[in-house]
């Protein structure tokens, strides 16, 4: 999903096989404040995504697929500012995305892990903060690449944490580590493989492959700081029950996030991209 740890476009609501996935426990789409939490993530990362898509030439004449569209910030930007012809916003629960009467932004309620899903081919397929939550991420990535039209672009991004495991111990550091463990246990989140993105795209036959990592500043008034506050607040019960945290340590971590003296780095985002050969 755009700009948030919890993915959209993942799983079918209330299905038995979906237990433990996003939307059935942590971060339910209809949960109080979930739209705001997603928007804080979008504020932290949308500028990076917009700059990358602009550098890849996204613009008039393009048909785009936004997988895990979140609140639709990138979908709307693609139409309103980049000037693309059409965006299909695919999401398991697209309630936050506003379709346009002119049809240039359409929504599709779908499960990105559904092997029968065939939305068509697009000049741009963009997927952010989704694959890290899927045990079948390699298969889904392969299907995303198949949905790229000849000469089109695939752009994918996920969370990357280069610092928590090596940072000095603190309530913030331990809470971040506990968060990743809770997400792994309850949703299946795994970010250990995301540095392989450029190689995965290359092995799928994409050309002009590149990647970048951005770590947003963790200051008191930064969107990413508000995002972590909201994320940890939404996970409070699970974090309080984590054996990695002492009683009251989550509140200490939240207080550290509110302190201008916090000396820590946030997890960031890795973005990778590639171009489907024109003749394929």
UniProtKB/TrEMBL annotation:
Domain Methyltransferase type: 65-156
InterPro entries per record: Methyltransf_11 (IPR013216), SAM-dependent_MTases_sf (IPR029063)
Annotated CDD domains: AdoMet_MTases
SUPFAM superfamilies per the UniProt record, alphabetical: S-adenosyl-L-methionine-dependent methyltransferases
GO molecular function: trans-aconitate 2-methyltransferase activity
GO biological process, one term: methylation
E.C. code: 2.1.1.144
Record carries keyword Glycosyltransferase: no
Keyword terms, alphabetized: Methyltransferase, Transferase
Disordered, as annotated region: 1-33
PANTHER family given in the database record: PUTATIVE (AFU_ORTHOLOGUE AFUA_2G14390)-RELATED, TRANS-ACONITATE 2-METHYLTRANSFERASE-RELATED
Protein name: Trans-aconitate 2-methyltransferase
Protein species of origin: Streptomyces hundungensis
Gene: tam_2
